[in-house]
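Onboarding guide, step 5: your first structure request.
Type a short instruction followed by the sequence, for example:

Predict the 3D structure of this protein.
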Amino acid sequence: MSISPKDVLNKNKNLNKRIDVDKINLDDVTVDDLKFNGKNYENYINLISLLECVSACQISDAYNGISKRSGTIQSIKPINNQKVWGRIFTAETYSDDWGTSAQAIDGAEDGDILFFKVSDDKKAIWGELASTCAKDNGIKATVIYGAVRDLDALLYMDYPVFASNFCPNAGSALGLGTLNEPIDVEGYSINPGDFFFGDESGIVVIPKELFNQTMTATLSVKIKEANIIDDIDGGKTLAEIVGLK
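The system replies with structure tokens like these:
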């Protein structure tokens, strides 16, 4: 394999570098900076430094301060309690059609989060084999408004899965769904390229056009909460800190 000039320039980039919270700069960060593209090193490092140390709760609080919306879909829960973030690749299908899951795996890009809207949760469209294949293809996680199965495997896999239900039965490889089109889940509009964050507490979806504003607000929430913890460690009570005493 030949080495390009870009390979040489990128060779010394330390993608594992992290910045202290009080020094993070998000001024020019966009949702595209979730992936290192060879030219966005500073934005990438600043953004990843933030995302590694915040929670779904803090991002939801930040987004609520901007939009008066939580960004959460509370019926979707973590299956194996793993933290993950990325850009969304959407899919919509029927519960008896796990074939669309296979198509989504092939259609998504490296680093994407698969987000499925399913007609109901009577049958599972995702399980161990799909998770194994998705992980091998570089997909970061799967989110399903519907059912998954194979919990005996998913609970211990190094691949994040979020779903609203689980069951043992599945449908067929029909491939009747749609890929990377806008979907509506419980009145919440989700578009391809929107930002997803999930952890043990649940999931948050942020419209891509509000990404920078939300990340900036999330940084403020993180710093504020860190200061409150310092005050508690210094002997103040929570009631005192919030002005109730």
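Each response can be followed by summary notes, for example: The chain has a mean pLDDT of 93.
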